[in-house]
Amino acid sequence: MILDLRRAGQPDSEMLLVWRNDPATVANSLSRKAVDPDEHKAWLERVLDDADTTLLIVEIDAGLPIGTVRLDRQGDTVELSLTIDPGRRGLGLGGPVIEFGVECARQVYGARTVVAKVRPDNQASLRSFARAGFANEGADPSGAFELLTFSPSPPRTAVIIQARSGSSRLPKKVLEDLGGQSVLETVLKRCARIPGTDVVVCATVATESCDPIVEIAQGLDVPVFRGSERDVLDRYMRAARMVNASNVLRVTSDCPLIDPDLCGGVLAARREKGADYATNNMPPSWPHGLDTEAFTRMALDRADRLGRTPDAREHVSPYIRNAPEFRRANVPAGRDDLRRYRWTLDFPEDLLFLRAVSGALSMPMEEATTDDVLALLAEQPRLAQINESHLID
């Protein structure tokens, strides 16, 4: 039996109401009262829109709902509550569901403490929480519940940079020289400065042509994962497993001006919004070449299981970006004129542009901020013309 979690949605409303109004559930609830259907509908709408609440459906056997997990955030503490389908109680599901809920609280909210409230006479739930490692702190202030606590390990955020040598438009582009070092080295050094991250990983391909990529990464003490060239989603999933990442920031190696602070802002937006996924290009508003994506490990694993199209396998995030079950966040530029810049590397003209920028900056490219580059282009607008023919509307 394999457990899985997905976010609840409006189509789950009737099922949730049946479970909530089961007599045993009512007896163990805060109010000990059945819920009116209209009240339930209004409650579900509020919960689905609340960044501080996550309501999850627990599934087994590839899509059979068997319960719920609810997470309510208050600062660094998350309260966990669960419901098991009345027809599946007594099967030992409580412990695994609790563990899944704790991991979700860790990934989505970065919870330092997870708490639960259980009525003293609900011995089955008390035993399930105890088996999951929760400590019983005694009665809560109301005296009606036992207060249970658990401190999960801190979440681990990995910056995973995909890199390969086999680009069709500009072969070996990430090995090109840029201000005295390779494009890849510049990207790796910039990513090492992203706030809120624990490790930088280079995810490359298990072919001899990518050996120079491995040498560059290892020279900077960056862990390397080698996997499939075409199935990049699988490569990301396995790289995340290798470093035990609970959250992932995706960066591509052809963006030598990737902005560490902007990347940190995307990570923070995902956590603050209680989202599974965050980016800065829904819709695009930053210069092309600053795009980044953050997602939880659970979202990545689910995309790996369910995202089966060629596009999903090659581009990593299409399933997470499009499936209605995920909560998403975006970090806009806040101005309308930045999309006219192209700072990525796909064509020879892009390389000419990046080399011209590198030569004109007053500091090494790896240290330049987005504002530094924008100021330079304002002073020397001709530089942006070098590769403007490749701008995408």
Q: What does this protein look like?
A:
With 393 residues, this protein is an alpha/beta fold. Helix content is 35%, strand content 22%. It contains 14 helices and 16 strands. The strands form three sheets. A seven-stranded mixed sheet has the order 1-2-3-4-5-7-6, with helices on both faces. It has a seven-stranded mixed sheet with strand order 12-11-8-13-15-14-16, sandwiched between helices. A hairpin with a 2-residue loop joins strand 3 (64-74) and strand 4 (77-84). Helix 8 packs antiparallel against helix 10 (297-306). The longest helix is centred in the first third of the chain and has 16 residues, at 94-109. The radius of gyration is 24 Å and the shape is elongated. The two termini are 48 Å apart. The model has no long low-confidence stretch (mean pLDDT 95).
List keywords for this structure.
seven-stranded mixed sheet, 16 strands, 35% helix
Structural class: alpha/beta
| Mean pLDDT score | 95
How many strand segments? 16
Residue fraction in strands = 15-25%
Write a compact overview of the structure shown.
With 393 residues, the chain is an alpha/beta fold. The chain is built from 14 helices and 16 strands. The strands form 3 sheets. It has a 7-stranded mixed sheet, with helices on both faces.
